[in-house]
Amino acid sequence: MTAAAQLNARHALPGLLFRDDPSGLVFAEIDSPQAMASICLQGAHLVTWRPKDQAEPVVWVSAAARFAPGKSIRGGVPVCWPWFGPHEREPGFPAHGFARTVPWQVTRAEALEGGAIRLTFVLLQNEQTRAQFPHACRLELSLSVGSVLRAELTTTNLDTAPVTIGEALHTYFQVGDIGAVEVSGLAGCTYVDKVEGGARKRQEGAIRFAGETDRVYLDTEATCIITDPLLKRRILIDKTGSSSTIVWTPWQEKAEKMGDLGPNAGWRRMLCVESGNALDNVVHIAPWQVHTLGVVYRAEAL
To answer: Of 274, 284, 291, 300, which one is the catalytic site residue?
Structure first.
């Protein structure tokens, strides 16, 4: 029996089926009256999400995304954990941690009152994860997929000593054109400008885009709104347990070097607004304590 067949025998629901992909990866496919979504069990990585009242997906995935064991997927909602960005001491460790490139196990699938489907995943430890993060922690992700998308990333410290983590839900949103959208909710916040060598600046007004942008906004729990006049919608990003918001677009030169952002200037159709805890806002978790990063995503007409 294949991996997908085993999962279907245990967890299939109306609107939820698992499939084996030719790449060797396994996907959960949701097609319910409320929404369509695809989730890769490697990384517990939500690849795309489109509420049925939206003509286009809200969560973007590159047309040139590569699906392969051990490789990160360009787009969707990668889970960055247990550090964000480069490791502070080991440059050979993967950027943004290992959670997005290792297998996760489905522990529960359920149909919720109201029509959403919720899947719960737990990260499977292996020699790589234990070598790079030698702490006894359990990492669980809950995804509730419906007309609204809810994500909860929960770290439980099972160790006898405190642990420190950086994390983010590195969400890629589909937009009409990066030059036409704006992000509100962060006015007055201090941010670290990675494009300008880590300079610390203060955000004035809404964020608009005319070049490469890579910023970590600090000490903010604010709701962010992407206003998109071309797709005639706004995307609301409402978070808890998160003190950092990361805003990123590569722009043309960097996108061409990356090579997996899709043809025909695919980078112009995406924008990352990430909810996390990074830099000054890393999280310290006492023994036997729990920390949850939660985000709710919704799209509504302008």
So the answer is: 274
